[in-house]
Write a structure and sequence with these properties.
0% strand, MetI-like_sf, globular
């Protein structure tokens, strides 16, 4: 009796240890990947400037940007300027990210439950995807104005279609056998969606989130360039016009670094959640 109960009591401890070890490993892998990516980007950046021989007045290398942000006498003011613009852009990006992802999720659920809704609305989503956003910008500005709404609409358009395709694919990848079992026992299509399709589509949902992060930032920058004149996008346009090349390069570097950081964070959360759900293989581990 004693020997038969001993393994069962030890099992939770081993499982918990493996879970915590796996989480720590995911964090370390994410940090390592981020550092490698940063190193590659910096080397390629400096190499391109050196090979092309671009004027130092126009092109700024990694060390130039670092000095402008941290070592020159006006570094504190420079950082404050970039930080203020970055916060505006991140706010606009969050609005577009949330709007696009929520609409994509609702449409994906509707498409999964009804082919008729999909046939009616998918052409509209494809139209928004196929028409360049720059061409739609004047119409969007006329309709919603130049406030936060334009960032939500333009960011949402960039996010919508890729997220929609990924989420629909994930919802429809649920096991048909389990879905049939639910149907046999009197379950509705919505029950099958809630109990089977949505849990099994977590991998696709996280893929949509990862795609949407850079998409939302791109949409926010476009809205700032073309409509609001604020944030990183507006600051870059103004700095280019005034030949403030240090500010231009610093703005581009900061928004790129933040985009990579947010993408890596989404990837880390995906790995941890899927591991917790017993779906680590879907996270590519």
């Amino acid at each position: 009796m004693a020997t038969s109960t001993s393994p069962s009591t030890a099992s939770p401890t081993v499982t918990g240890g493996r879970t915590s070890h796996g989480a720590a490993g995911s964090v370390l892998r994410a940090a390592r990947t981020g550092l490698i990516t940063l190193l590659i980007v910096v080397l390629v950046w400096q190499a391109i400037i050196s090979i092309l021989g671009v004027s130092t007045f126009i092109a700024k290398g990694p060390l130039d940007v670092f000095n402008w942000l941290f070592t020159v006498p006006a570094a504190a003011e420079n950082r404050e300027l970039i930080w203020g613009n970055l916060l505006v852009t991140l706010g606009d990006s969050f609005i577009g990210f949330t709007a696009g992802l929520v609409v994509a999720l609702l449409l994906a659920i509707a498409f999964t439950l009804s082919r008729g809704i999909e046939h009616a609305l998918m052409p509209i989503a494809m139209l928004l995807r196929s028409v360049p956003l720059v061409a739609l910008a004047p119409i969007i500005i006329l309709i919603v104005g130049r406030g936060a709404a334009v960032a939500a609409v333009m960011g949402g358009i960039v996010v919508l279609f890729p997220a929609l395709v990924n989420i629909v694919f994930g919802l429809r990848s649920a096991s048909p056998i389990i879905t049939d079992v639910i149907s046999v026992y009197g379950g509705t299509p919505f029950t099958a969606l809630r109990k089977v399709a949505m849990p099994s589509s977590l991998g696709a949902l996280f893929a949509a989130v990862k795609i949407s992060v850079p998409g939302a930032i791109t949409g926010a920058l476009l809205a700032e360039w073309l409509a609001t004149g604020k944030g990183i996008g507006g600051a870059i346009v103004a700095a280019v016009a005034q030949s403030k090349n240090f500010e231009v390069w610093a703005s581009v570097v900061v928004i790129t670094a933040v985009t990579l950081l947010l993408y890596g964070l989404a990837q880390l959360v995906e790995s941890l959640v899927l591991r917790r759900m017993g779906m680590a293989a879907s996270a590519g581990e």
